[in-house]
Design brief:
Elements: E1 26-29, E2 40-43, E3 55-58, H1 64-79, H2 88-109, E4 111-114, H3 125-137, H4 140-165
Antiparallel strand pairs: 1-2, 3-4
Helix pairs in contact: 1-2, 3-4
């Protein structure tokens, strides 16, 4: 029931996380209430600076670079001597050699790409080729071919993602 003689009523609530020193830092200011009986509640939430990666190294799936990367890693693994591993330090050294081989080959065959809000995980060399073909010819046929390729690549990519999550 609304009564004009009563001052404004406000329920003061603040939800905090139990056992959290960072999120249980709160202040109550009853002197800030003005004409209502509302006491201002303030919580201090610390915001930690976070580094967001805006680029990554990648190798296009089913590309020549992927084949060369895999072949180089396999060939390099075959050269690593693992016949005389008799203690933990030798095992750690062999594992470190494997990691160095993969890292070197990855750096050699991958390319650095920028991650933007427009990045498309499904985009591949076939999309690049069809787009370049359209840009050079400006024909309706090449535009339709590009659109079919995009649709096909999206379908393939997202079908694979759906299967991975099932």
């Amino acid at each position: 029931m609304d009564n004009a003689n009563d001052s404004n009523l406000v329920i003061n609530l603040i939800f905090l996380q139990c056992d959290s020193l960072e999120l249980n830092t709160h202040l109550i200011h009853p002197e800030w209430c003005l004409t209502s009986n509302h006491a201002s509640l303030i919580i201090i939430i610390p915001i930690v600076e976070e580094h967001i990666v805006t680029h990554k190294r990648t190798i296009t799936k089913n590309s020549d670079e992927e084949v060369e990367f895999i072949n180089e890693v396999i060939a390099s693994f075959a050269k690593v001597d693992i016949s005389n591993i008799v203690n933990i330090s030798e095992l750690e050294e062999a594992i470190s050699n494997f990691a160095n081989i993969v890292n070197y080959s990855w750096t050699k065959y991958s390319k650095l790409v920028n991650i933007t809000k427009y990045s498309k995980s499904w985009w591949n060399d076939k999309c690049n080729q069809d787009l370049a073909n359209y840009r050079s010819s400006k024909s309706i046929e090449s535009w339709k071919s590009f659109q079919r390729t995009v649709k096909s690549m999206k379908r393939e990519f997202f079908d694979l993602k759906i299967q991975e999550n099932c």
